[in-house]
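Title: Prediction job returns without error message
Component: structure pipeline
Severity: low
Priority: P3
Assignee: unassigned

Description:
Job completed but the reporter wants confirmation the result is attached to the right record. Sequence as submitted:
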Amino acid sequence: MKNFILIAALLYLLTPAVAQYDEEDYEKADSIVNHYSGLIYNQVKEVYPVKDASSFMYKTKTAEGIKYVFVDSEKPLKKPVFKDDKFLQGMEEEFGYAFSWEKMSLSKEKIDAKAEVFSFVYKKYNWEYHIKKNKLIKKKAVAKPRPYKHWAIARDELGRDPLKSPDEKYTAYIREYNLWVKENESGKAFKLTSDGSPGEFYSSYISWSPDSKHLAVNKFRTAPKRYMKFMESAPKDQWQPKLKEVEYAKPGDALPVKQPCLFSIDDKKQMDVDFEEYLQQYSLSDPHWRKDSRAFTVEYNQRGHQKYSVLEIAASDGGLKVLAEETPETFFFYSGKRYRYDINDGEEMIWMSERDGWNHLYLYDGAGKVKNQITKGEWVVRNVIEVDEEKRRVLFTAGGINEGEDPYHIHYYTIGFDGQNLKELTTESANHSATLSDDKKYMIDSYSRADDAGKTVLRNVATGELLLTLEEADISQLEATDWVKPEVFTAKGRDGKTDIWGVIYRPSDFDPNKKYPIVEYIYAGPHDSFVPKSFLGVDRRIAALVELGFIGVRIDGMGTSNRSKAFHDVCWKNLKDAGFPDRIKWMEAAAEQYAYMDIERVGIYGGSAGGQSSTGAVLFYPEFYDVAVSSCGCHDNRMDKIWWNEQWMGYPVEAHYDSCSNVVNAHKLEGELMLILGEIDDNVDPASTIQVVDALIKADKEFEFVMLPGMNHTLGGKYGERKRRDFFVKHLLDEGTPVWNH
């Protein structure tokens, strides 16, 4: 017996104690994040152009509190809007409680051109403060917001009011599904169509020609509507659960079909428009008339997004002309890279296209022929800011022009319609965000990098000349703490050639002699790129988790936007890819450079599209990813919203939807997985996560599932965040988690 006791005692002494995190560790992680964020001063994120002027007002947080600054661009100079505390005193007298510059919660702030009247919204009312008179005036109440309408609900094609003609002689309207016109003076009405019916009718979104001689309207053929149904189990206002539903089209669903129709008012008849080639629709826009009434245009998006056309229909005879057309082998990114600008009522047109492999601008003539390519090169136009028809110049943003710089950094440029005289307005190597003055002559440019706090300056739009430095971000107090600056890191992707960009985050007690597991926050939706490019100081998506003892990373792999078309096309019918081969190569390169990054312990988490990707990581790449936490994932692309999923996965719905499905592939799970779901998610069908749960159970797999009653589309909120931290601490750090039920 004594020997047994001795052996037991020795075993106890030799067994390593399991480390135990407590609530204070989690609270410290959260408090450090909030503390760090509060130590960043003099950044400018809100700029207010003054109406009909060259001047601005901007707001910034200083060490003393919120500060409003007026900028006179012409002089140029800046001055504080408030030189004393009289405004605060006036607010205190009005509302009966203290106000301070440290904490201000005004909204919709404005100032007049003389910097004498400061306008704002507070407590559901508009207010004016007359600075020189020191007078606070209460104005009218803010209009009540329109009732919330879910984004997936299609508009009511019969719901628009009758529409008067521009000359006010006629009123057009829909009666019993047909198009009618009333002569306003006599009150007589005549019927222009007779073939309308409940299933195929004329839309009430009628368009008059500017000369009032013609009408254009889409004939609308209905399709059955799908409704997403879900249960709210614990509503706040009753004991019994509520069944909810929302109109919600999914990939493969039948869609309405529109056909543009043209009518002559003088002849009281319909004119023929040959539109048979354009009936395989995802969407068709409403008719839009030329100012001289010669024609109207519509934009056609073919189902599957592999053909997109700008069409013009002549008022004289209904003849159809193609003004621009995209027919890519993969997809036309209609929801993010469609840009059209008609010059001089359609005599010319600026059109955006990726036809040469990069996103660029093209100049067309009125007949639909390309006159010239405006921008060209192995770089990407990000956005068109302003088109100056008189000077025949485009102001736009782009990324990737400057060799050696992060290609995601946004810079501002001007160029002539003829593709000549490309001029960079923002030369600093950083990510730029500018606001133009109301007269378009000046801009306030805030620039920074993920690892550099940056500045805010005033520039001349025509030349890019720096006129005045307005603010220089102050992070001296932040740097005086144990804050660790994020590191921008690049490595070659799967092809061994393409640079993949990301950011590395380290905890405040970072020790290069330790080994840290890696946790990736992923969002790989093809509609954008997602790694922060401007200075945050603290990335709230991942900072608190990193503080618990991880190396955090964020990466933009292939399949995301804002690089070449080939880079983007990786996602085509292949959302399960999510850039993982690039992400893995990037982390392997980082771990080779930094021995403290433990490539043998890798976790990943994300929500929505990131929820799909994070689960996909442990299903399709289990040799690399060990632990995943997925929130509100669109785990099967047939279950999610039509516009997003058919954009990348295509139409019709075929076998590739199966190959990308986390439901179909759930049996492949090898690592550790937690699924988090908001019960009343009306963005991604909650059933998508439940179906993964069902498949995992049928495959006899171990996993964790957290249902959050009454929560919508979410990463998890406070409780979900706690569960996520516990999961990574337990499975990547192999340490105990706080005892929450004490």
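Comment from assignee: result matches the submitted record. Confidence is low (pLDDT under 50) at residues 4-18.
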